[in-house]
Amino acid sequence: MTSPAVVWPEPAGRASRGLLELLDEDMSRRRRISIAPGRVNLLGGHTDYNDGFVLPVAVDRYVSCAFAEGVEHTEHTERTGPKGKALEFVSLDFGDRFMLDITDIDRYRESADAFERLTGGPKNRWRRYVAGVVIEMEAAGSSIPTGLGVIAGDVPLGSGLSSSAALEAAVYLALNNGGATPEAALLCQRAENRWVGVPCGVMDQFTSFMAEAGKALFLDCRDLTWRNIPLPAGTAVTVIDSGVQRELADGEYLKRRQEIETSLTILRKVTGPLESLRDLSPEVFEEVEDILPEPLRSRVQHVVDANARVREGVTRLVLEESEGFGELMVDCHLSLAHLYEVSTSELDLIVERSLTVDGVFGARLTGAGFGGCCVVFHREGCEGPLRERVEKGLESEFGRRPTVHHLHSADGAGVYPIEDQI
Ligand code: GLA
């Protein structure tokens, strides 16, 4: 009996062909491939690290890791010594490769120098994500296989579509057949926090693992309970990349997190115990907001409103009220732009122009902001006018053309035997 054929997305085909080339004629190894999607967030923004709510959708852009277990190259043995256990990764997109010695993972964890030598400094950022996941898996008690992993992706980089979470999820699943779980999402978040130094919340990793095609993922980032909510029939999502790289993203993201911590310290003087902004209701905030100087008051206002908006958005989706849902997306964008101050003129213009197109329900920036992409939620069929209107607008105002991606919602990450390919 043969297993049902799986049609793989482009990066999966590329990664598996890359692996076969490196393995020469040797087809006898245990081989598998992981496929992990990127995401856009429809509602919620900077709410995940405040123990709040988010409502993202996984999209059909992926990172894949084709993995052959137990491969021993002579070259490996030369580098690890006869007792070493080699685990090598190749990135087709970055034209780079590196090798870990599994017997040395404790050393990478304990010595910053050893980790820097392994990952080759900040320039080879992809290595840090991969090595971070391996180190955290080992710390969590997973047995790490020896082998060779070949990675390829088509999630645009640095655009707010979570290429990093997709990379982490792909590496995790390629090494561990345990499957997609909320614990896996937390592990990958830890890898990014500790080994890449980005203090992200859990939204991106959770979505990459747990999303379902045709649905938005309503996640409570405090207790990690979630529900997948069907998107109304006949609706679609278009992602428009402003082409502005998120240069400031890391520093400004950290600054927002610090502003929230300072706000909490001040608020606690009048509210008493407050674990996170999740515990601050809109009513209580209204009573105490004057205690916060600007911009802290605005930052907190954004988070409090954004949480309420996610809950209302879930009701709108359940009632299939696409227009009401779209209005909430626009409110979210305005709040991110004016209260949280993470938008750019290009993103604002994309939202503004998108909303002039018949059939568009709502638009907002996606991800952390500071550049990157907007997500537009619309009726199926208005893709042409939408593209034209936004391209023209951006070109005449800023002299640059945005990249428009018509995407589909996608299932969360999975891992498959390579033999299933067609
Ligand atoms: C980035 C982070 C997420 C989240 C968003 C903002 O994508 O990785 O954890 O905080 O920004 O909503």
Structure description:
The protein is an alpha+beta fold and 422 residues long. 43% of the residues lie in helices and 22% in strands. The chain folds into two domains: 10-229, Ribosomal Protein S5, domain 2 (2-Layer Sandwich), CATH 3.30.230.10; 235-407, GHMP kinase, C-terminal domain (Alpha-Beta Plaits, 2-Layer Sandwich). The chain has helices at residues 10-22, 74-80, 105-110, 112-119, 125-139, 163-175, 182-196, 203-210, 249-271, 282-288, 296-318, 322-338, 345-354, 383-398; strands at 30-43, 53-69, 86-91, 96-101, 147-153, 215-220, 225-230, 235-241, 360-365, 373-379, 403-407, 414-417. Helix 6 packs across helix 7 (182-196) and helix 9 (249-271) packs across helix 11 (296-318). The chain starts with 9 loop residues before the first helix and ends in a 5-residue tail after the last strand. 46% of the residues are buried. The model has no long low-confidence stretch (mean pLDDT 92). Alpha-D-galactopyranose is lined by residues 41, 45-46, 48-49, 200-201, 203-204, 367-368. Alpha-D-galactopyranose binds at residues 41, 45-46, 48-49, 200-201, 203-204, 367-368.
What's the short story on this structure?
With 422 residues, the protein is α+β, with helices and mostly antiparallel strands. It is built from 14 helices and twelve strands. Strands 1, 2, 3, 4, 5, 6, 7 and 12 form an eight-stranded mixed β-sheet that branches. Strands 9-10-8-11 form a four-stranded antiparallel β-sheet.
